[in-house]
Q: What sequence folds into this?
């Protein structure tokens, strides 16, 4: 399986066509809500925003969001959902269609960069560093990956075959003289048997 633009575009087009109700019901990510609860809203990058559940939640909570994905269908859906929520929320979001395998955020421009469950096509180390380069001093980076094997059962998860960040890979990519680790842990998913999430929250100290 190749998790490239054609794969994701096909998956989003099919999912949005066949299960729009399920997509609309999907709540924003629980790790995001928990980990950024104490942060003051500012500029945030949602890298791999999908259908926009987190982007919309962030905009509704006062953040100015740059939302990047390479699926045109997911972005179109997200944009129209934002517009339906009203001009105030829609105006806080900039939608960018780009490939995160190559796209580099503007340097040190964000108070928060989030990258949730994105398959990494190249090197994890390089991807984490590239996403981290967008964080301004004093800002934060939240990376979350679904691990491919469920440690409780030893069985493959829905992320099997994908390369997503692990705690070790994300931590290893961050220069500890510039980053303070706030969270670096694996958390079991709510539904038993669906595996664990690697959650890394780091604060840029310089
Ligand atoms: C598993 S979904 C996660 C979406 C969202 N972050 C969430 O937590 O629900 C992965 C998303 O990353 C996007 N994606 C994967 N690889 C990408 C890449 N190289 N460039 C841009 N977007 C990518 C896909 O289109 C998809 O929307």
A:
């Amino acid at each position: 399986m190749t998790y490239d633009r054609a794969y994701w575009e096909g998956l989003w087009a099919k999912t949005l066509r066949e299960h729009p109700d399920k997509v609309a019901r999907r709540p924003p990510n629980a790790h995001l809500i928990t980990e950024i609860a104490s942060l003051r809203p500012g500029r945030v990058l949602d890298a791999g925003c999908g259908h926009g559940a987190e982007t919309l939640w962030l905009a509704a909570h006062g953040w100015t969001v740059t939302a990047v994905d390479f699926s045109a269908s997911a972005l179109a859906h997200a944009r129209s959902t934002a517009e339906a929520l009203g001009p105030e929320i829609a105006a806080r979001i900039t939608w960018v269609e780009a490939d995160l395998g190559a796209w580099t955020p503007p340097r040190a421009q964000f108070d928060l960069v989030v990258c949730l469950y994105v398959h990494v096509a190249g090197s994890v180390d390089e991807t984490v560093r590239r996403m981290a380069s967008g964080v301004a001093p004093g800002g934060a980076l939240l990376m979350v990956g679904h691990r491919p094997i469920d440690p409780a059962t030893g069985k493959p998860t829905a992320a099997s075959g994908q390369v997503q960040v692990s705690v070790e890979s994300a931590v290893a990519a961050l220069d500890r003289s510039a980053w303070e680790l706030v969270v670096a842990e694996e958390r079991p998913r709510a539904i038993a048997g669906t595996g664990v999430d690697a959650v890394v929250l780091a604060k840029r100290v310089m």
Q: What stands out?
A: Helices lie at 5-18, 20-25, 30-35, 53-60, 72-85, 87-90, 124-132, 167-173. Residues 8, 29, 48-50, 53, 69-71, 74, 99-101, 116-119, 121 surround S-adenosylmethionine (CB under 6 Å). The mean pLDDT is 97.
